[in-house]
Amino acid sequence: MTSAQSQPAPDLTSPEVATNSAATSEFTPAPTIPTPQSSGNPSAQTPFEQAHTKFHAVTTNSEIEFQAIEAAGVAFKQAQENPEWATSPAFREEAWMALVAACKRAERAEKAQEEANREMEKAIEEARAELEVEKKVVDAERRIIAALQSVLDRTDGFGC
């Protein structure tokens, strides 16, 4: 047994990684695509292969996107603690791809949030404009009522 095989790769679903169980339950793992490293056996996957599977299943929900980045960071930390398997080129490539994918997803979520914010601002401005028009209509109605009341008050003494 080599030194790289002496310590199994940590599980990304462990409590240390999955600090928010409600959020991690939203991850739906995509089907595992066999790679030379995993050969289709999920227990033989590196932490980044496991994370990569989770990243493919992440929705555009911003909170989940940032948790994916956090999971990638935890996997990097675990790699630092176990340099035997972290030094493999396949692991580094997978780690980099997983981190880039997580960052791109977070960026898309941020852009979607910005677009939603712009649409909300536009709706607020339209509502303000409608409110201003409504205020002008109400003011005009009040002036008309006041003018009619004035006419009634003046004509009341003439026996009309």
From TrEMBL:
It comes from Knufia fluminis. It comes from the Eukaryota. Residues 16-27, 35-48 have a biased composition (Polar residues). This is Uncharacterized protein. The keyword Coiled coil applies. Residues 1-52 are annotated as: Disordered. Keywords: Coiled coil. The lineage of its organism: Eukaryota, Fungi, Dikarya, Ascomycota, Pezizomycotina. Residues 99-144 form a coiled coil.
